[in-house]
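Hypothesis: this fold can be encoded by more than one sequence.
Test: take the structure tokens below, design a sequence, compare later.
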């Protein structure tokens, strides 16, 4: 009976100490050692018992968490080529991450900025990483399609580039 009660109390002590550790909001780097120690002190029938120490060490796992956000809505003209839409990728994880870019046009998708369905279908859609020292898409300079080792907390610009057709698409045909 004493052992069962002791194990329950020890379990509660460990859970409580884990909750306190978790409440700090600290984001450890992937692969870091995380150590936790708890000591259970108790009495039985008013008699102090030998405290029970417990400790555990484990490796912090890799947290994969990122945000992709469109920076601004750009206007385009019929027949325009190499029209770039800028997005940012932010690594919210705890270790460097790699990203392979791929752009797709989703027919009939609502434009999150205008709230309406597509009225044209771009062609020659590609995605590129900002690799030039000059901000903004630079045709011929921003040619990488792979983000390599984006550090935790860092943000990088990427561009979806396409050609705009010379005529509009009938929106009713997109359904």
């Amino acid at each position: 009976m004493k052992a069962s009660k002791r194990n329950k109390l020890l379990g509660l002590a460990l859970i409580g100490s884990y909750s306190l550790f978790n409440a700090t909001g600290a984001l450890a780097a992937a692969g870091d050692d995380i150590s936790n120690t708890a000591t259970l002190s108790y009495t039985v029938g008013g008699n102090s018992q030998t405290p029970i120490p417990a400790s555990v060490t484990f490796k912090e796992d890799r947290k994969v968490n990122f945000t992709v956000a469109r920076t601004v809505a750009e206007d385009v003209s019929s027949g325009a080529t190499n029209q770039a839409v800028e997005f940012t990728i932010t690594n919210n994880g705890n270790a460097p991450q790699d990203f392979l870019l791929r752009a797709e046009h989703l027919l009939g998708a609502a434009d999150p900025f205008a709230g309406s369905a597509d009225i044209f279908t771009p062609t020659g859609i590609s995605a590129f990483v900002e690799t030039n020292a000059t901000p903004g898409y630079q045709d011929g300079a921003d040619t990488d399609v792979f983000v390599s080792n984006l550090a935790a907390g860092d943000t990088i610009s990427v561009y979806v580039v396409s050609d705009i057709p010379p005529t509009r698409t009938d929106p009713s045909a997109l359904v």
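The chain is about 15% helix and 35% strand. The helical segments are 2-23.
Hypothesis status: open.
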